[in-house]
Design a protein that fits this description.
ATP-binding; ATP binding; five-stranded parallel sheet; alpha/beta; cytoplasm; 9 helices; binds BIS(adenosine)-5'-tetraphosphate; Rossmann fold; nucleotide biosynthesis; transferase
Length: 184
C-alpha cells in the first residue's frame, strides 16, 4: 500500500498515522518527525530547519526531498505512509517522478477535512514550540498558499479520498480504514 495523508497543520495526520501503521504494518515517513530529529541532534540541516519551523514556514524542497528519498527506497517492500509530505506542488511532482521511476505509483491520498477554528484550538492546547498563535496563523496561511493546491492536483489524478477529520480519534481511524482496506 502506497499512501499519503494530506491536510492542514494540526488536522491529525501524525495522530492517525500511528493507528494506520499499527493496522497495516507499512513504513511511516513523517517529514515533521524527521526534521524534529535533525533539530534535536543539532545537525547542520537541523539548525537550518529550526528557524524556519519555529517561524511557521516550510523547509526547502531540496532538503525535504533529500531526506525522504533514501527512506522511500527502504520502505518500498512493506508499503509506505507519508505524513506531512508532500506539502508543495514541487514536492508532489518530485514524488511522482521518483515513484514512477520505481514503478510504484501512489494508490491513494487521504485528505483530512477539518476547519481552521478546530485546528487552532487543537494546536493551542498541544503547545509544541511552533504552536503559538502567531506561528499557527502563519502555518495556516502557508498551507492555503502552498499545500491546499495539492487537493486539486491529486483530485485530477483520481487519487484523492476526503475523510471528515472531526470527531473521536478511533472514529476518524475507522473512516480512514474504510478507504485504505480497498488497497490491502
Ligand atoms: P508536521 O510535523 O507535519 O506537523 P503538523 O502539520 O503540525 O501536524 P499534524 O497534522 O500531524 O497534527 P497532529 O496529528 O500532530 O509539521 C511541522 C513543521 O515541519 C511544518 O510547519 C514545517 O515547518 C516542517 N515540515 C514538515 N514537513 C515538511 C515538508 N514536507 N516540507 C517542508 N516543511 C515541512 O495533531 C495536532 C494536535 O491535534 C495534537 O495535539 C493531537 O493530539 C490533536 N488531535 C489529533 N486528532 C484529534 C481529534 N480527532 N480530536 C481532537 N484533537 C485531535
Amino acid at each position: 500500500m502506497r499512501t499519503v495523508l494530506l491536510g492542514a497543520p494540526g488536522s491529525g495526520k501524525g495522530t492517525q498515522a500511528e493507528n494506520i501503521v499499527a493496522r497495516y504494518g507499512i513504513t511511516h515517513i513523517s517529514t515533521g518527525d524527521l526534521l524534529r530529529a535533525e533539530v534535536a541532534a543539532g545537525s547542520e540541516l537541523g539548525k537550518k530547519a529550526q528557524a524556519i519551523m519555529s517561524a511557521g514556514g516550510l523547509v526547502s524542497d531540496d532538503i525535504v526531498l533529500g531526506m525522504i528519498e533514501e527512506r522511500l527506497v527502504k520502505g518500498m517492500a512493506a508499503g509506505f505512509l507519508f505524513d506531512g509530505f508532500p506539502r508543495t506542488l514541487a514536492q508532489a511532482e518530485a514524488l511522482d517522478v521518483l515513484l514512477g521511476r520505481l514503478g510504484q505509483p501512489l494508490d491513494v491520498v487521504v485528505f483530512f477535512d477539518v476547519d481552521f477554528d478546530e485546528i487552532t484550538r487543537r494546536l493551542l492546547s498541544r503547545g509544541r514550540a511552533d504552536d503559538n498563535e502567531a506561528t499557527i496563523r502563519k502555518r495556516l496561511a502557508v498551507y492555503e498558499e502552498q499545500t491546499a493546491p495539492l487537493i486539486e492536483y491529486y483530485s485530477r489524478q483520481g487519487r484523492l479520498d476526503t475523510v471528515k477529520g472531526v470527531g473521536g480519534i478511533d472514529e476518524i481511524s475507522a473512516r480512514i480504514f474504510a478507504v485504505l482496506d480497498r488497497f490491502r
